[in-house]
Amino acid sequence: MNNAYKELEKKCFWNPSVGNINPLDIQQVCNPKFKIEKSDKIATYGSCFAQHIGKNLKQRNFDWLITEKAPEFISKELREEYNYGVFSARTGNIYTTTLLRQWIKNSINNQSIVEVWKKNNRYHDLFRPTIEPNGFSSENELIASIRHTENCFKRSITNCNIFIFTLGLTESWMNIENGFEYPISPGVAAGEFDPYKHIFINQNYQVVYNSLEESISELKKINKDIKIILTVSPVPLVATKTDKHILAANTYSKSTLRAVAGDLANKLSYVEYFPSFEIINSHIFRGIFFNNNQRTVNPHGVDFVMNHFFNSFFRSDCQKHPKSELTNKCDEELIEAFKKS
Amino acid sequence: MKKICILGNSHVGSLKRAWDELKQSSVGKDFEITFFAERGDLLKSLTADNKMLVTDNMRVKQSLAFTSGGVSHVNTNEYDIFLIYGSQLLPFWLYDDAFYSLEFIERSIQEHLEGSQAKHLLTELRKATNKEIFLGHDPMLTQKSSCPQYTVKNYNVGMEKLNSYLAKNYNAKAIKQSEITLENKNICETDIAYLKNSRRLAIGFNNDNEIHPKDDLQHMNDDFGSIWISNFFEKLYL
Predict the structure, then answer these.
(1) CB contact under 8 A, A71 and B102
(2) What is the ipTM, given to two decimal places?
(3) From chain A, which residues contact B within 8 Å (Cβ)?
(4) Which ranges carry the GSCFA domain (chain A) (predicted)?
(5) For a tag site, which of A23, B82, B134, B168 has the least CB within 10 Å?
């Protein structure tokens, strides 16, 4: 008897590809529309988890495109303290799709509004609150730095073959007076929170979809040959500003991001979705990829997801490399310091 | 006649032998140089004692006496100008098309200097005297080395920042390596011709003035030393 499932590949069926095998033997979780060549230049941005992709590209000797860099003789520790080599340019974490759109627009006009917070004679950039560990020495230095980063960000788009963006959050903070978005609520890492000026928005599907679609369209205008890989961070929210339980808020946030990323990847031939979220979060792994806090991903999880990533996208031989380092820079985690005991 | 005191490690060898020739020529007519050198980083045993740099290390005392012509301590009153040469101070460079915060540059320079004999000598020398102090970094490596390349523009930007830092913190100045010693006028790599017949610093040992092994890509020959000293004198005339 003929039926619609008869000709499908094994991967389409639960039992042979998941249920009846050791979960660590799971294969072909992603069959991308395009492959990455060893010679391709790859730009990476997004939430904290995106940092693993960049680090792994470097460890495996792929061409991770860094357009804002410090000299190589400076120690890795110092470079990381000042956020060099964390993402392709020193944007800091870009958690939301609306913030990605803001960065793209600012990099095009290179005259964005700059919000400076002065404390103890040091100047802090509210769009990159932890980019310099002690802030800048003057407002002019801060502005010069952000303009340079905007240029480097644009150059990374222009010069890359592959742009990888990891979606992290739907919960966002806006300045209602000027209409721009912060990466993190003012008052957490820098600045003062003003309830009349700073508003919380938990972005819904349509907002995330529209801003990501617009971002992709702008990326394509800058670089017509660009290919884009979307991933969703498997790392749960550190806190929610909604009135929901964090578990429910996290599911809403990740589900929304996952749905948008999948829909745009289904729609656009040059956009692919890689399921890092599913690989880490699926119940079939029984949480083995999380640390004891059930939030941060342990090195086994990072290695596992990265091996799947490289096996999926790269034609070239991607030998497994030394265990991943887990020293990511996550502004969001600063929120934890404000929790009630 | 300006009296110059040069302190440093094995790299001083090329300067010293070059000076032995230059001092007879018109190039050296306005200067008198005394060398205080020892291999490796053993000059880290020198410490400031009032206006002097002194050491308890017998080997270092002997090397100082050998290289200076009989004196085993540095009396800063006897010299007008000081040069700290080599001594693990490496060329400092920054990408010329990048923007770096002042704090990041200062932290990078601090890290760059940290642990070097050059920093130790600079610190101790500054305790002992207010006179002019110059620094000369180790020669740039040659094309044969596998270090990342940097351009002359990168080097110029970096050395300008290094000099701002040295001026502010030590009232000292670093001298750049002459561009005529480079293989290519845009890339900071010493011409491999200056490796040929480079010799060990003489400190009274059996292997004094021995030719460096072929795989030594750091030590330059007497021609290099001659160019370096001539370039240094030109800066002093300015």
Answers:
(1) no
(2) 0.91
(3) 68-75, 78, 82, 132, 134, 136-137, 141, 144-145, 147-148
(4) 41-309
(5) B168
Question: Tokens representing B181?
Answer: 């010693």
Query: Across chain A, which distance is largest between two alpha carbons, in Å?
Result: 78
Does a structural domain hold residue A19? Answer: no
Q: How many CA atoms lie within 13 A of A148 on its CB side?
A: 17
Q: Which residue, chain included where needed, has tokens 């080395």?
A: B145
B99: nearest CB among A75, A137, A148: A148
**Which CATH number applies to B2-237: 3.40.50, 3.30.2170, 3.50.70, 1.10.3470?**
3.40.50
Neighbours of B23 (CB within 10 A): 14
Is residue A216 included in any domain, yes or no? Answer: yes
Digitized pLDDT (tens) for each residue of chain A, 341 residues in all: 789 998 999 999 999 999 999 999 998 899 999 999 999 999 999 998 899 999 999 999 999 999 999 999 999 999 999 999 999 999 999 999 999 999 999 999 887 889 999 999 999 999 999 999 999 999 999 999 999 999 999 999 999 999 999 999 999 999 999 999 999 999 998 889 999 999 999 999 999 999 999 999 999 999 999 999 999 999 999 999 999 999 999 999 999 999 999 999 999 999 999 999 999 999 999 999 999 999 999 999 999 999 999 999 987 665 555 555 556 676 776 666 666 65
Domain coverage including residue A203: 36-111+149-332
CATH number at residue A189: 3.40.50.1110
